[in-house]
Amino acid sequence: MFNHSSKTALVTGASRGIGKTISMMLAANGIKVIGVATSEESLKSIQNIDNIIPFCCDISNEKSVEQLYNFSKEHFDSIDILVNNAGIHMDNILLRMKTDEWQKVLDVNLNGPFYLTRVLLKDMIKSKSGRIINISSISGTDGNKGQSNYSASKGGLLAFTKSLAKEVGRRNITVNCIAPGVIETDMIAHLTDTVKKNYLDRIPLKKFGKPEDIGKMILFLSSDEASYITGQTFYIDGGISLN
Q1: Which domains are delineated in the chain?
Q2: What is the pTM of this model?
């Protein structure tokens, strides 16, 4: 559908949910993918998929990210597509939120993309080519009760995207962001029927999104056809952010 001309990709949070779907869709389109997750056990879900190379990495740790970079260099000259998808949430109202709950969420959701983008960017600059796609959330612009840490980290990704796009555009590197709404993954499986109904009432399309909806946008933004798009945030949310 789109031209990816023998590209390579690195996707974080690749063992489940949106990240797994993204990895599988990229791989199905002939892209070689390094799929990253935090445990060897979770990586079993993608270890036998063609074009996907699993790797265990704690992206919130600089040394672990350096090991990931060295691993990528063993397999590819450079990474053409970086998808910063990994994210966690530790919900609590602010008055009860522990410092550890705040810090861990920012370490994974914001510091991780910083560490990984910085180390891969050098090769992209040398080759004067690259696609960086950050997965944020509608919580990054709209906020959400009990998620001040998560919302802050995802809002930081939006600003990070715009700033970096301005820095590296002249090197033919695009930087874009996707802000998913309520997507059918295990992250919403714990929601009660009442909460789900409340969400559906606010969504103009009256349905939840699917991971494939995010994957399709990744395929486009990482393709040659998207070469003139940078610094943008794309809301894939069924229209809920219109409210």
Answers
A1: 8-237 (3.40.50.720)
A2: 0.95
